Amino acid sequence: MLENYIGIVILILLFFIVYKTYKIYVIRKKYGHIPGPKTNGLLGFYLGNLDEALKYLKGGKILADMMLDLSKKHGSVFKFQILDKIVVFTINQNAVKEVLITENFPKIPEIYNQVGFPYNERYLGNGLLSNTDSESWKKRRNLFNNGFHRNILMNSIEEFNTKVDSLLVRLRLLSDGCTKITLFKEINHMALDVIASIAFGMNTNSINDPKNELNHYVYESLKGFYRQTFEPFIIYNPLEWKFLYNYKQIIRKLRDLGRKQILKRILNLQNGNYVADDILTNLLKNHVDEKFNVDNMVDDFLTFFVAGQETTANTLAFCMLELGRNPHVVKKLREEVDSVLGSKSYISYEDVAKLTYTNCVYKETLRMWPPIPEIARISDKEIEINGLKIPPKTWIQVSTYVSGRYEEYFEEPEKFLPERFLFNAENTRIKNYTYFPFSLGARNCIGQNFAQLVGKIFIAKFVQNFDMTLDWSQNLGVIQEATLRPADGTQCYLLPRKN
Ligand code: HEM
């Protein structure tokens, strides 16, 4: 009996190995005409370039650096293999345009389902970011486009100022020159408050009360989510089941919070009217399945925090790191800020438009340190890149990180040079489709104006108010989880500005 079972298991295993071998043989042949890194021996046949990727990670580098090194070696289009998957990577300008704009190839369900439903739990669900069905995405995007329009954001300028000011008040209390401050953490709280307030009319005050429920659950939900990306087999490990159970509870609590908030808004009860939680929960039940779908709304509620909070905070934490390394940039920034604002603390929309150099500093930060370094899509027709035919159903990866550091596109790419974004009369300094930290085309970032506004206001007010010294003992490198982030979160010491 036992021998029979073992025999069956061996047969299934053999069948699996033969199937995988054949599958890998076929895809390697299919993409044989595209250049790319070699794989090592028999193991390399099965694992592809996984060993090289792991070497980068173990060496404290990020995968985006591996792509950069490969593009220096193989040019603007190459392929790499991870297990039984071949990905075509490109920073070719025409290809970037074709993939993201002209053809607008679909998002890859295998990747975005992990964002929507990690461990089969509804997280961002079918929200804007993770939605892979173009028709349903279009309807939702149309719903939200207006809310993020420049004119609407202009009307919120006071609130942007207020939230940044709240953070400045807190930083002032810590600016004694010897208290170590982790700027990423502080800015992350502000980013949550500003999204909560402007997008949902919520007053969260994470800046002074980081333990508030929303901040806590968003933070914890992201932590668990990252593990899925880098430890895909966690679900099969019984020792991790407790973690998974707790993680799912966190997501459920976060979604409950979102549901209640949305209902409060819908029922227009938020203006000081207290509604007990259990009443709200009952109201909620009655609203499900009516003409609007509350679960879909919760998807987007979470999406705006998950897509907007960390990206905004990472960018500003990177920016502060670069300012710490480049005092001459701070000097120039201050000259601009002083001439536009003087001692004024309120920054109007018109002021923001005048902060040209500040804008360049923000853009240069995103060139070097885009929080979302690469984007993958799946082709739904054959395309040609540099004369190479790329078959339909190919995973194609494009990368603003690699483009932004590619010498053919940006001179002295390792240097932080905001001036490169000061456009000359012909507006030709930045080559087309080489810089896209907010992505391009129909599925670009809906929050980009929002992020830039809060970013520029923060940078201007920060240099207007503080002298910063970086803690040089911190890890000044970068980590790549779901997003790129300064490894130690930009640790520094602050003093009130002297001159
Ligand atoms: C510096 C800050 C930010 C950066 C660098 C950034 C970058 C991006 C990128 C690259 C994408 C495309 C992702 C993909 O194709 O998978 C994206 C999409 C998105 N972002 Fe942002 N983002 C930022 C801030 C924000 C903010 C503040 C919000 C909202 C408050 C936001 C909301 C979204 C949403 C909802 C999407 C999905 C859009 C769609 O597919 O229709 N982002 N973002």
CATH fold title of one domain:
Cytochrome p450
The counted number of beta strands is 11
What does the largest sheet look like?
Answer: 4 strands, mixed
CATH superfamily of one domain: Cytochrome P450
Which strand order does the major sheet show? 1-2-7-4
On the 0 to 100 scale, the average pLDDT is 91
Named once each, the bound ligands are: protoporphyrin IX containing FE
CATH architecture of one domain: Orthogonal Bundle
- What is Rg? 24 Å
Low-confidence stretches: 287-291
Helix content: 40-55%
Overall spatial form: globular
By CATH reckoning, the class of one domain would read Mainly Alpha
What is the rounded distance between the termini? 86 Å
SSE succession: HHHHEEHHHHHEHHHHHHHHEEEEHHEEEE
Description:
The protein has 499 residues and is an alpha+beta fold. It has a domain at 124-372 and 437-496: Cytochrome P450 (Cytochrome p450), CATH 1.10.630.10. Helix content is 55%, strand content 9%. It has 19 helices and 11 strands. The chain has helices at residues 2-30, 41-47, 50-58, 63-74, 93-102, 109-116, 134-145, 150-155, 157-174, 183-200, 213-230, 241-266, 277-287, 294-325, 327-341, 349-354, 356-368, 400-404, 448-465, and strands spanning 77-82, 85-90, 181-182, 374-378, 383-385, 388-390, 395-399, 466-470, 478-480, 484-486, 491-496. Strands 1-2-7-4 form a 4-stranded mixed beta sheet, with helices on both faces. A 3-stranded antiparallel beta sheet has the order 3-11-8. Strands 5-6 form a two-stranded antiparallel ribbon. A hairpin with a 3-residue loop joins β9 (478-480) and β10. α12 (241-266) crosses α13, α14 (294-325) packs across α17 (356-368) and α14 packs parallel to α19. The longest helix is centred in the middle third of the chain and has 32 residues, at 294-325. The model is unreliable at 287-291 (pLDDT under 50). Its cofactor is heme. Keywords: Heme, Iron, Membrane, Metal-binding, Monooxygenase, Oxidoreductase, Transmembrane, Transmembrane helix. GO terms for molecular function: cholesterol 24-hydroxylase activity; heme binding; iron ion binding.
